[in-house]
């Protein structure tokens, strides 16, 4: 079965559960919306759930912008801040050093468009998981997708999430704050390493 999904920044585990279990078509023709996973992700810091947000250039005028046209505001040192936060959160995790050299370089590159960066994070994590993903994209926007496509675009909403009841796995600060579900895929990767793909494939279908 095919699934319609937004490309997001180091996607949440719910996104990757879908990616691991469905044939994915990525929505690239919609309008940009603020405060979604399009430009944010959550990690598990020493103080609990931490937001990593990408600054976006403001659009001229008041019209809506296509998601694919949204540009990153690289006037801020946000990549340096994100990587420092990730290091602080996961330096002591079982697999941080194993994947560090693969993931760190993306924070040294300069990306112009948000969507390009998001696709690169998806491809990067897929490589780390040794998981093949075919990037299929929409060519028109449809409010209601075709009958053979399941609409998972609502997973992009970061403020109206359902409870997914994913299986617990060991998290670095779990003893301090308890298990936090549906964080960025990097939380699962750094904690579970090669077992991450088996975890994703074993979760109940969304």
Question: What can you see in these coordinates?
Answer:
Pfam families: WbqC. This is WbqC-like protein. InterPro entries: WbqC. The strands form 2 sheets. The protein has a 4-stranded parallel β-sheet with strand order 5-2-1-6, covered by helices on one side. The protein has one domain (2-202). It contains 7 helices and 6 strands. It is an alpha/beta fold and 206 residues long.
Number of strands: 6
Radius of gyration: 17 Å
The structural domain count equals 1
Helix content: 25-40%
Order of helices and strands: EHEEEHHHEEHHH
Strand order of the largest sheet: 5-2-1-6
Note the quaternary state here: single chain
- Please mark out the parts with pLDDT under 50 across 5 or more consecutive residues, or reply none: none
Strand content: 5-15%
Structural class: alpha/beta
* Global geometry: globular
Number of helices: 7
Major sheet characteristics: 4 strands, parallel
Protein name: WbqC-like protein
Organism: Zhouia amylolytica AD3
Pfam families: WbqC
